[in-house]
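Re: Re: ligand-bound prediction request (bumping)

Still looking for help on this. To restate: I need the protein modeled with magnesium ion bound, output as structure tokens. Inputs repeated here so nobody has to scroll up.
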Amino acid sequence: MEKLKGISSRFQLQGTVESIKPLGEGFINDTFTIRTTEPEMPDYILQRKNKNIFTNVPAMMENIRQVTEHLKKKVVAAGGDPMREALTVIPAADGKLYHRDESGEYWAVCLFIKDTVDYQKADTPELAYQGGKGIGKFQSMLSDFTEPLTDILPGFHNIRFRFKQWDEVLAKDPAGRKASVAEEIGWIESRREEMLRFWELVENGTIPTRVTHNDTKINNILFDKQGNVLCVIDLDTVLSSTCLNDYGDAMRSYTNTGLEDDENLDNVSMNLAIFRGYTQGYLSETAQFLNEKEIEYLAFSAKYITYEQVLRFLMDYIDGDHYYKVKSERHNLTRARAQYKLLTSMEAQYEQMRAIVKEEVAKQK
Ligand SMILES: Nc1ncnc2c1ncn2[C@@H]1O[C@H](COP(=O)(O)OP(=O)(O)O)[C@@H](O)[C@H]1O
Ligand SMILES: [Mg+2]
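Reply:
Sorry for the wait, this slipped through. Here it is.
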């Protein structure tokens, strides 16, 4: 507590710090709420940034500053409240957007947004709709953002980069596991060309690069007490990428009827009603600015991101489990198989997914 008080004193806070308490929901960072004594003064969120994942925190915070400033202009133009509808980064006393402590840890502070509702899981089409609307609105407000962002996670969702890693790991076979997963390797190889053809459209600009969130879980969206989307938070992973990556990754996690590492493959499938709900919400905000190719490839992006995840889990298994934390020797293989089941469920329902996108786009025109 004393240490945290010391750290918080490095930031330009208003009011007197009364308490600093851990907030338990996030996976990546350590998050604390700072309460101030005076009722009229704001409260704050203090975070220790995970420097294993984010190797360039100063660049990350600068990305967040640029994006939130743009969002605030948009909120003001629409007559909204820029302190509630966008994150506010609080600088340190020296003007930097972070504080680096004696042990080399990075800390950052933002304004605590009061009176909000959050959800840990979107298990109904109605909530999926709200989740899609939240990310769609975020992307829409940033669709005219043109400043370059620093690429703080190089190779993210870039399948060409993943294949390079994949080919290297298979050539080495460091854990001697390759022979036992010949069938699973076949799943990856038989779709390699299809996935590269999509990524070429991103590389040649047919599918444009825009600001994307890259952690589209519903608990990264704050809602107001009436249940309307208020603010998208957790901006550590904002990147220049294709909007389809956000959409596809949301579909990979929202629509799965089972667990990411389900042992029972019968549990795993894609829920088309959730797909429709999210797509409806997403397109209600994005149909106006997405180009024809982006719309054409929306349904495909769900398969693309799920495929990438099969590849990454399987690659980590073959590599001897270096990247993902595992609970058992076969954990990564279990994950790869469960994600592959989800992929095949998407493939089986692909024509319906495409039809839903078409219908929902038509409604917006
Ligand atoms: N500015 C904020 N206002 C209110 N609550 C917040 C704010 N920032 C974060 N939170 C809460 O803290 C949780 C964890 O923060 P988040 O930035 O998402 O960290 P992580 O990267 O660990 O997921 C969020 O899910 C949300 O409940
Ligand atoms: Mg979060």
